[in-house]
Design a protein that fits this description.
With 269 residues, the chain is an alpha/beta fold. It has nine helices and 14 strands. The structure holds (5S)-5-amino-3-OXO-hexanoic acid (KMH) and zinc ion (ZN). Residues 9, 12, 46, 48, 81, 83, 225 line the site of zinc ion.
Length: 269
């Protein structure tokens, strides 16, 4: 089995400092936590940016600062968000891709997102995929629902995405696919031979989905974007969430990938 790639979604767009004091907001806080999770076994950080008020932003200059500060501290793979927050325009969302990070997320369909709608039209998805290709950025397909798997593959057939394919099954968002073992087994069998996948279980689904992915040969995403609790009633830090996955994986006999090993697996040069 491949070594385990642990991605940490450090901050996200929706969680606020009022929800948890452990949320990193400023570029310095984000970079500091990127280093912390790197030191305990994470190989990718999934990044969102916040403005001075703590609101979600896709501002290129804030991403530039975050990326520079992380790179000063550690060699972790940086994956920027192109999802941003619900309601942002295409032009806002795509901004960080021009900074040529190693990876970026690419959601391949529209989905209900709680009471809101996370819009991703076919033309916008193609545009984002092309910009990633032109900037040498490896996309991670964000799969919130099963139809998005076929939409992602259509991008490959039509030449918008080339090279290694990597999927993130986002499971348990209200309005999207449920975080059940049966669902994870199903979606993990729907992707092409040779592709890799990770799973982001939302809320209390984070731990069981992570554990299942470790056993199935998938990879794992944890972090405060998806889940702020260590267990019922106890807030987590990003570092604790990574440490737990590392412990479980090692107990089961699966080693943890370094960033360079993750680069090899994901064929990032
Ligand atoms: N904030 C969500 C609406 C991504 O980062 O690419 C979208 C999201 C996905 O977080
Ligand atoms: Zn995100």
């Amino acid at each position: 089995m491949q070594k385990l790639i642990i991605t940490v979604a450090l901050v996200g767009a929706e969680v606020r400092k009022e929800d948890t004091p452990h949320l990193p907001i400023t570029p310095d806080e984000i970079a500091e936590q990127a280093q912390e999770v790197y030191e305990v076994g994470a190989s990718i950080v999934h990044i969102h940016a916040r403005d001075r008020e703590g609101n979600s932003t896709q501002d290129r200059e804030i991403y530039r600062e975050i990326i520079a500060k992380i790179r000063e501290r550690c060699p972790i793979i940086i994956q920027v968000s192109t999802g941003g927050a619900v309601g942002m325009t295409e032009d806002e969302r795509i901004q960080p891709v021009s900074l040529k990070p190693e990876m970026a997320t690419l959601t391949t369909g529209t989905v209900n997102f709680g009471e809101e709608v996370f819009m991703n039209s076919a033309t916008q998805i193609r545009r984002f995929a092309l910009e990633m290709r032109e900037n040498g950025v490896r996309p991670e397909f964000e799969i919130f629902d099963t139809g998005m798997i076929e939409n992602a593959y259509k991008l490959v057939r039509d030449g918008y995405v080339r090279g290694h394919l990597h999927y993130d099954f986002v499971m348990g968002v209200p309005g999207a696919m449920p975080a059940t073992p049966e669902q994870l087994l199903f979606v993990s069998k729907q992707i092409p031979e040779g592709a890799t996948w990770t799973v982001a279980g939302i809320g209390r689904a984070q731990l069981p989905m992570s554990t299942m992915a470790i056993l199935l040969g998938g990879h794992v995403r944890v972090g405060l974007e998806d889940n702020i609790y260590y267990k019922k009633g106890e807030l987590a830090t990003n570092r604790q969430l990574v440490e737990r996955v590392v412990r479980i994986s090692r107990e089961i006999g699966r080693e943890i990938a370094t960033p360079d090993e993750a680069r090899k697996i994901l064929q990032i040069s």
